[in-house]
């Protein structure tokens, strides 16, 4: 857990101080955790369930909230075509040379498409990210997760929920709700919850006390419901300029 109480919770840049004080001051880095998560993903999405054939090279993965790209690295080593996006210009800039060209700066609440376009990915991974985003932007983020997926594609979401022990220790957790709060919003975004996938993931030691694991599936094409898309696109252009120059407004 993080002990970064001095940080402004609305600081959307997640600059150097956030990462240096991550995990009770240990700092954010590569670890066996990313190996374990990559192993789970390989077991669940890397093999043909009927033949057992390794299909990793035909599976495209997006890691939303990728930070320095550690999970991107471990998934690419396992054969997956993997990319990452993160709001933190600092974190993306600190990514190692072997993943730098696969990770980019992007805010997952933006309506304008990311570098890789929509309807592209077989799997979208979003771990411990959605609780850092303000409640009024939740549906935009969930819709974007849907839009990134191919029809039939799936998502692996780990969301910090009120049932998780110790969630209060991180002041950047600005949207922590009960698990039940997320269920209808996932449904509204067209993301069908796949129960059996969650059960398998929670059998692994890291996830056993995590009550915010969701495996979701896109069952039909995304249909825009928001009539203010053009206005939001203009806001996103302005926000991108601010983000890249470090002039991010709260």
> What is the CATH topology?
Rossmann fold
* Computed Rg: 17 Å
- The topology string of helices and strands comes to HHEHEHEEHEHEHEH
- The helix-and-strand class reads alpha/beta
CATH class: Alpha Beta
Strand order of the largest sheet: 3-2-1-4-5-7-6
| Helical percentage | 25-40%
Distance between the termini: 24 Å
Low-confidence stretches: 1-12
Instruction: List how many beta strands DSSP finds.
Output: 7
CATH superfamily: Vaccinia Virus protein VP39
- Tell me the strand percentage band: 15-25%
CATH architectural grouping? 3-Layer(aba) Sandwich
* Basic shape: globular
Task: Report the mean per-residue pLDDT as an integer.
Answer: 82
Give the tally of structural domains.
1
**Count of runs of 4 or more consecutive helical residues:** 8
Largest sheet: 7 strands, mixed
Outline:
The chain is α/β, with parallel strands linked by helices and 250 residues long.
Structure characterization notes:
This protein has one domain (16-245): Vaccinia Virus protein VP39 (Rossmann fold, 3-Layer(aba) Sandwich). It has helices at 16-20, 32-45, 70-77, 89-93, 138-148, 179-188, 195-201, 229-245, and strands at residues 60-64, 81-86, 103-105, 121-127, 149-158, 191-193, 213-218. By secondary structure, it is an alpha/beta fold. Strands 3-2-1-4-5-7-6 form a seven-stranded mixed β-sheet, with helices on both faces. It contains eight helices and seven strands; from the N terminus they run ααβαβαββαβαβαβα. α2 crosses α3 (70-77). Helix content is 31%, strand content 16%. β1, α3 (70-77) and β2 form a beta-alpha-beta unit. Mean pLDDT is 82; it is low at 1-12.
